[in-house]
Amino acid sequence: SEEDEENSTKNPFTIPPDIDIFSIRDKEREKAKEERERRKTMKIHEKMTYSTKINVKQKGFRKAFQKEEEEEDRKQAAETERLKAFQDSLSWKIALTKEKESFHDYVNNRRQIFLLEYIMAVKRDEIQRLENLAKTEERKLEKAECYLEKDALMFDEFLKENDKNSAQALKM
């Protein structure tokens, strides 16, 4: 209870001790000042205009964007190629199995697939039910722990009060 009061009265808007904002600001100002001094000594053909700086930045952005698009196109082409190869192999397998497979085999296979899917659905439902049950039991356990802590505190207070009363009784 005392810790709660201490935490609630503590100011949350304090600056962390490991970060000195003012020194960072001073360093940035110093850098800007050095850059201005350096520009003063540069020859005119070495200096850049504002529009030149913007164009250089935009070229960098354009190159990065173009590389990103090329990478995306390569990934798309590889994925398309992989899917096409998979589809070709799958259609070949299907054609081969259709020739060999009779109607009775087809029905049996479909029945087995259905049963396996049904078993998986039942197990998923059971897992979900057990997870929900576990969560409910955990919540009950947390409540019980909370009540137990409260009872322990009340018992400690009772013992202190009892000691105090016995001390007063001895004095009397």
From TrEMBL:
<protein>
    <recommendedName>
        <fullName>DUF4200 domain-containing protein</fullName>
    </recommendedName>
</protein>
<dbReference type="InterPro" id="IPR051147">
    <property type="entry name" value="CFAP_domain-containing"/>
</dbReference>
<feature type="compositionally biased region" description="Basic and acidic residues">
    <location>
        <begin position="23"/>
        <end position="47"/>
    </location>
</feature>
<keyword id="KW-0175">Coiled coil</keyword>
<dbReference type="GO" id="GO:0005856">
    <property type="term" value="C:cytoskeleton"/>
</dbReference>
<dbReference type="Pfam" id="PF13863">
    <property type="entry name" value="DUF4200"/>
</dbReference>
<dbReference type="InterPro" id="IPR025252">
    <property type="entry name" value="DUF4200"/>
</dbReference>
<feature type="domain" description="DUF4200">
    <location>
        <begin position="106"/>
        <end position="171"/>
    </location>
</feature>
<feature type="region of interest" description="Disordered">
    <location>
        <begin position="1"/>
        <end position="47"/>
    </location>
</feature>
<feature type="coiled-coil region">
    <location>
        <begin position="120"/>
        <end position="147"/>
    </location>
</feature>
